[in-house]
Amino acid sequence: MDAQKHSGLRNALLTEKKALVSGLVTFVVGLVLWLFGSDNHVVLFTPSKVGIVLMVLGGLEALWALFKAARRQSAA
Questions:
Q1: What is Dmax (Cα atoms) for the chain?
Q2: Does pTM surpass 0.70?
Q3: How far apart are CA 62 and CA 39, in angstroms?
Q4: Domain boundaries, the chain
Q5: How far, in Å, are 22, 32, 59, 60 from residue 64 at the CA level?
Q6: pLDDT digits over 50-68, tens only?
Q7: How distant, in Å, are the alpha carbons of 9, 45, 51, 52, 61 from that of 37?
Q8: Where are the membrane-spanning stretches (predicted)?
């Protein structure tokens, strides 16, 4: 029974770690677009504006992963 509980906790921590890394990568891609995409214009969008949206989404995803990890740690 304890091994099954330990396995579930391990899977949850790996999922939170993946979400944190994914959020940080999305944030960095958005930062690059925001910094270096301001001179370029694509037909439907401006890369710098897409970069801002990606930075916000990546930051929210990383914060959510940290919140879930902290909540899980305080419950244990």
A1: 59
A2: yes
A3: 29
A4: 2-75
A5: 11, 22, 9, 6
A6: 999 999 999 999 999 999 8
A7: 41, 11, 8, 11, 23
A8: 20-37, 49-67
